[in-house]
Design a protein that fits this description.
Layout (H helix, E strand, L loop, with lengths): L1 E4 L5 H17 L7 E6 L13 H13 L6 H11 L2 E6 L6 H17 L4 E7 L14 E3 L5 H9 L11 H9 L2 H7 L2 H11 L10 H14 L11 H22 L8 H11 L7 H8 L2
Parallel strand pairs: 1-4, 1-5, 2-3, 3-4
Helix pairs in contact: 2-3, 10-11, 11-12
Length: about 290
């Protein structure tokens, strides 16, 4: 099965949920069902284009288990593929470098053709997916945007975070009064950002998308998952991202097959061009600013 959707629609979360559901059921059952392996496809970006094949893909599956200290992962993957006992979850085809994406698609198709008893799900952003796995999957599904009812159910989880003077009903009515923002908020990630912003007593939901994006960017750079953000100078990150966005737009036809990704080496080179303007050292500060 192939699953496509917009950024933030929940594709990765869906695959993680499937793995978690399997683990919970496995605790209460000894049945020998399909064992899921989640492989983030961006991990293939380090492979040379000439080396992308079934064997490399199998090794990446082994490494996915190794990261969780799975015993004898190599022999388990080999035997389970032969027996058709794996549930292969390939996440984020769009995160594969465009220069090698065709070869990655071919390797996955070859793997699924050879081990056709195994189940598989491949996820990809809708804008990047071009029916690449039509010969290998039975279905291609789209993750739909939230309905009004689903938005309300989603926001229930934020009820306890709302200040006394605000409510879910008020937020939904505010969104209805701002149809451009309402359209964005039907995306799970964007609705999460809306809800997070709305829990702040002084926050007023903007009327325009540009103002909303400004607020959202501020949250993502300054507050969102701050515990994982090792580089704390958000102004520096903003400047770097602005440069990369402009570079990607101006050079899509020259450097990439699309304007949705940039080669990692190109990213490093472009960051190094910006850092002197920020009084930073390209040799020592390029890697830290990515964290």
């Amino acid at each position: 099965m192939a699953i496509k959707g917009q950024p933030g629609a929940g594709k990765t979360l869906l695959l993680k949920y499937l793995v978690l559901s399997w683990a919970r059921e496995k605790l209460n059952s000894s049945s020998n069902e399909y064992v899921p392996i989640l492989l983030e496809l961006y991990r293939l970006n380090e492979i040379e284009i000439s080396g992308l094949n079934i064997e490399v893909l199998k090794q990446k599956l082994v490494e996915a288990l190794d990261r969780d200290d799975f015993p004898k992962a190599n022999s388990f993957v080999e035997q389970s593929l032969e027996k058709g006992k794996l549930f292969l979850l390939f996440d984020g085809l769009d995160e594969v470098k465009s220069l090698i994406r065709t070869q990655v698609v071919q390797a996955i198709n070859d793997l699924l053709d050879k081990y056709d008893k195994c189940r598989a799900i491949i996820t990809c952003r809708a804008a990047v997916y071009h029916n690449d796995f039509a010969e290998s999957v039975d279905k291609t599904l789209d993750i739909k945007e939230f309905s009004d009812r689903q938005m309300r159910l989603f926001l229930e989880a934020w009820k306890s975070e709302m200040p006394p003077e605000k409510s879910i009903d008020q937020l939904i009515q505010t969104l209805r009064d701002r149809p451009l923002i309402m359209e964005l908020a039907r995306n799970p990630l964007m609705l999460t950002i809306v809800a997070h912003l709305y829990t702040q007593p002084a926050f007023v939901l903007p009327q325009s998308r540009s103002d909303f994006y400004q607020e959202s960017t501020h949250i993502l750079l300054n507050q969102w998952q701050n515990n994982f953000n090792q580089y704390k100078e958000s102004a520096h990150k903003r400047r770097v991202l602005q440069h990369l966005a402009l570079f990607a737009q101006d050079n899509a036809s020259k450097q990439q097959k699309d304007d949705l990704s940039l080669d990692y080496q190109i990213v490093l080179e472009q960051i190094q061009k910006v850092l002197p303007d920020l009084n930073l050292n390209p040799e020592t500060d390029t890697q830290p600013i990515l964290r």
